[in-house]
Amino acid sequence: xxxxxxxxxxxxxxxxxxxxxxxxxxxxxxxxxxxxxxxxxxxxxxxxxxxxxxxxxxxxxxxxxxxxxxxxxxxxxxxxxxxxxxxxxxxxxxxxxxxxxxxxxxxxxxxxxxxxxxxxxxxxxxxxxxxxxxxxxxxxxxxxxxxxxxxxxxxxxxxxxxxxxxxxxxxxxxxxxxxxxxxxxxxxxxxxxxxxxxxxxxxxxxxxxxxxxxxxxxxxxxxxxxxxxxxxxxxxxxxxxxxxxxxxxxxxxxxxxxxxxxxxxxxxxxxxxxxxxxxxxxxxxxxxxxxxxxxxxxxxxxxxxxxxxxxxxxxxxxxxxxxxxxxxxxxxxxxxxxxxxxxxxxxxxxxxxxxxxxxxxxxxxxxxxxxxxxxxxxxxxxxxxxxxxxxxxxxxxxxxxxxxxxxxxxxxxxxxxxxxxxxxxxxxxxxxxxxxxxxxxxxxxxxxxxxxxxxxxxxxxxxxxxxxxxxxxxxxxxxxxxxxxxxxxxxxxxxxxxxxxxxxxxxxxxxxxxxxxxxxxxxxxxxxxxxxxxxxxxxxxxxxxxxxxxxxxxxxxxxxxxxxxxxxxxxxxxxxxxxxxxxxxxxxxxxxxxxxxxxxxxxxxxxxxxxxxxxxxxxxxxxxxxxxxxxxxxxxxxxx
Length: 640
Hints:
The chain is α+β, with helices and mostly antiparallel strands. 57% of the residues lie in helices and 13% in strands. It contains 22 helices and 18 strands. The strands form 5 sheets. Strands 1, 2, 3, 4, 8 and 9 form a 6-stranded mixed sheet that branches. Strands 12-11-10-17-18 form a 5-stranded mixed sheet, sandwiched between helices. A 3-stranded antiparallel sheet has the order 6-5-7. Helix 14 packs across helix 15, helix 18 packs across helix 19 and helix 18 crosses helix 21. The longest helix has 33 residues. It is elongated, with a radius of gyration of 39 Å. It starts with a strand and ends in a 5-residue tail after the last helix.
């Protein structure tokens, strides 16, 4: 059976969220619920009768004897932490199936996020751990990719912005990750040890509340003996922090507080509280986890480091996308706007950071399935030989386009200068003239001017004859995947100026056609035939009529063949004969008469080389395939 649904699973250090997208449609993903909530605290509890519980239920269910929160981390050899993650996902998977929100099994492909700073080895270890839950189809992808895809799908980026550079700042509970997306490729920005997570603020609130608590000593004993009480109190600190940053204007007054609440028993309560004054002190106090720098100072330093790294890469991001639940803290956005000012960079916080990654993961999974099918359709088109057949059918039109301007250019740049040089005595015999013309023609064909002429005609041929045939076959593929029909067209890649930064493969198509034409004209003896044709009838006979008596006197019978040989090989004809035989008008007349004959000769010579054209068809076909692959890679981001 085919995969019918994509499950985006955002297992965060602080919160977890899950979304589902139908695999075969472009409907927006939908958030799934556990315990009637779309977002859950990342918590795992053990109840002697109920077994493993997750999220809010693990926190509020009476009788829970073990509780663990905020346990997402880079895979290591700690068996306990590995078991906690495995049990958490396993329980989530079971609850989603039992509630009929997912089909499960091979019908459901799970896409689980990880920090973009994790190495490929870390991702592989994490995936291996998650697969031990028994979920048959599971992939681990960077959370930054999910954030990017979600922003793209909801229309936060224009195509030009998508194609340029986007800096993603993911402020999570345990880390803050920076990822540059440039021309659709992800480049994690590694700042070494990354401990800049928003949970450090929760712990600072916890430490402050505990230090000021009237029953501090008793609480310390309780936390040491019953760790799950400490976990609940840390969550109360987190809720106080989130309440403050959701309603900052309310808590500017020194008598107003955002509060959390946790009851240890009927007599002991843990009530963290923050307002503007308290949160400012906490954000600016030194933290040992950050090398005794404050959270706000460390965050500012990280944003500055990101800018410095980008400057070394020569990149100014068009968009700075902020995601992660902690991006709701207003000062994080203000620092980004200060360091990456408009209009060069637009800072865009995600409006739903707590759901962004889950929705984006579901979109990434569906996009990967459809992108793979899209590329398969492009491959199928090429493998069907339709493209090569189209090229073969249009070879005669290429010959027609080339022969006339090429004939005129050869006469203007090789024949006419040679005749004038011979007339002026710079070339001795007509045999030497033939050799000079051949050499001059070859040099001109290989020159920039010669190549440019052929380039331009090949451009015209490709865009007028080949591109429409390609479009006729690629437009249905674009319609099938609901992307603009122009997405697979190569017009932008075939530019007469040969300046094409976006799709240089077009130049390769041109290069093959140009090189083929030059080699065919030079290598087939066409140039030699041209010269022979010129000297026979158009030049030798007029000279013979003027100089015939001299030839007879020299013992040469007036046999045409002998006259031609003698004039070409033996005679250094006097200057006055040359002037009489080849006045300027005569040269122009000879050249004008020669143009249609030379054009016909070129056409005939090129048409008589079917094997050579088979090679050209193969080469151009290969380059078209590469161009389509390049375009396919470029436009897959447009697939919904």
